[in-house]
Design a protein that fits this description.
The protein is an alpha/beta fold. The chain has two domains: about 15-150, Rossmann fold (3-Layer(aba) Sandwich); about 155-215, Alpha-Beta Plaits (2-Layer Sandwich). The chain is built from nine helices and eleven strands. The chain has helices at about 25-35, 50-60, 70-75, 90-95, 100-105, 115-130, 165-170, 200-205, 215-235, and strands spanning about 1-5, 20-25, 40, 65, 110-115, 135, 150, 155-160, 180-185, 185-190, 210-215. The strands form three sheets. Strands 2-7-6-5-3-4 form a six-stranded parallel β-sheet, with helices on both faces. A three-stranded antiparallel β-sheet has the order 1-8-11. Strand 9 (about 180-185) and strand 10 form a beta hairpin. Helix 1 (about 25-35) packs across helix 9. Bound molecules: iron/sulfur cluster (2 copies).
């Protein structure tokens, strides 16, 4: 069986000198969304990736949508009517930084989806410095300028391949803070809060029982798990 463990660390996070976003798992992101008055801001990547449109359509059931770039087109085709759609992302951010406009719209969290990473990074930096609104990036790359961001990596553990030999535990360098990986009754367990995502355990596993995953597959998986958690909360 394949188990997934999300690593709440950014890729190369240790190289970043700024205040960083809290790296959230899908269930944590769902909790943040469900306890806020959120607005979803979508970007042009929705034109390239259909799974982003599917996800935005689902989220539009619980929060209003502001469509930037040309992302309004696939949303309108799916019956989602954005509250605003004619502005560029920078225009939207100017309005959001204007406290009066926000009072009118009554939201306290902006959720970003489908926006080019470098573009989003600049916008998040501006929001961090010039507004007090919280931001959550659900895109594929870790965004240090957000308040909360998805992680860019996860570990997939193949229990059927693991022999329980413990080699991965021996190479893990997190001993001083407590061990991030352990073998209990022949099965490995990861403590995501201690893991630094170095990848040594995967490298030294001769049976390829640990795989580091990033990119689109991981992103789809995380969005899917977030939605599941949203549905669970809605049913409660
Ligand atoms: S090194 Fe590989 S096979 Fe050995 S315990 Fe770790 S994951 Fe399992
Ligand atoms: S070896 Fe590295 S990636 Fe593996 S559990 Fe330890 S800290 Fe995490």
């Amino acid at each position: 069986m394949r188990r997934w463990v999300y690593i709440p660390r950014s890729y190369k996070q240790s190289e970043l000198q700024c205040d960083r976003a809290v790296c959230v798992t899908p269930s944590e992101a769902a909790k943040i969304i469900m306890s806020s008055r959120a607005v979803l801001v979508t970007g042009g990547l929705l034109l390239e990736k259909k799974y982003l449109v599917d996800f935005a359509v689902e989220l539009s059931n619980i929060m209003p949508v502001i469509a930037t770039g040309a992302s309004s087109k696939p949303l309108l085709e799916r019956g989602v009517k954005p509250v605003t759609k004619s502005y560029t992302l920078h225009h939207i951010i100017q309005f959001i930084e204007d406290g009066e406009w926000r009072k009118l719209r009554k939201f306290d969290l902006i959720v970003f989806l489908g926006i080019q990473p470098y573009y989003l990074s600049r916008v998040l930096s501006s929001l961090r410095h010039f507004s007090n609104i919280k931001t959550l990036s659900l895109d594929e790359y870790y965004q240090p300028n957000a308040d909360y961001s998805f992680s860019a990596m996860a570990m997939a553990i193949e229990d059927s391949l693991c022999s329980g030999c413990g080699d991965c535990v021996t190479v893990c360098k997190t001993m001083s803070k407590g061990l991030a990986i352990n073998v209990v009754r022949g099965k490995i367990y990861i403590k995501p809060c201690l893991c630094i995502g170095c990848g040594l355990c995967a490298e030294f596993c001769s049976r390829n029982a640990i795989i580091f995953e990033k990119g689109e597959l991981l992103h789809k998986l995380m969005l899917g798990e977030l939605l599941e958690n949203v549905y669970i909360t809605l049913k409660q």
